[in-house]
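so my prof wants the structure for this chain in the tokens format not the other one, which i didnt know existed until like an hour ago. anyway here's the sequence
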Amino acid sequence: MKNIKIIIVISISFVSAIMLFHIINKINNDKEISHNLRDIPEFRLQRVFKDGYFTNDSLFKNNNSVLIIYFNTECKYCNYQIRYINEQLVKFKDFQVLLVSIEEPDVLKQYFNKNDLLNRDFIYILYDKEMHFERVFGRCPFPTSFIYNSNKELVKIFKGEVKVGTLLKYLNE
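here's what i got, hopefully its the right format
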């Protein structure tokens, strides 16, 4: 009986130590990602409607602020977010808007054909085939919006649906 109690105590201690290690590791990883996000991080994502890749070097060509939205076409909040932006699209023409998804390009093409966001030179639909975005920007719920100013500095992160007026307020800072 005494041996069983010792085994239980050792097992609980061992499991607790492993859990603590993982928690500390996650906290440190989150801090590193937060630090790396202060300035636009390096990334490379596949273009959906054009050949090639879109990288962080493709940004800020006209000293524009940048809105990056991580989304999924099956997410109802993402659909609301994209619909709200589409309804007031003219207000976003002075910015670069990146819509990033892990969904296959065929799914994205079908979705954006239906939502008429294709022929805009300031909107980029990007496919994250290798889940690079999550490694660079951290684990994000759908939708998550990142706003960077023309100095390549992070202005704001929004997790979840955001009103267009709020996005524009931070894009104009």
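also thought this was worth mentioning. The domain at 40-171 is CATH 3.40.30.10 (Glutaredoxin).
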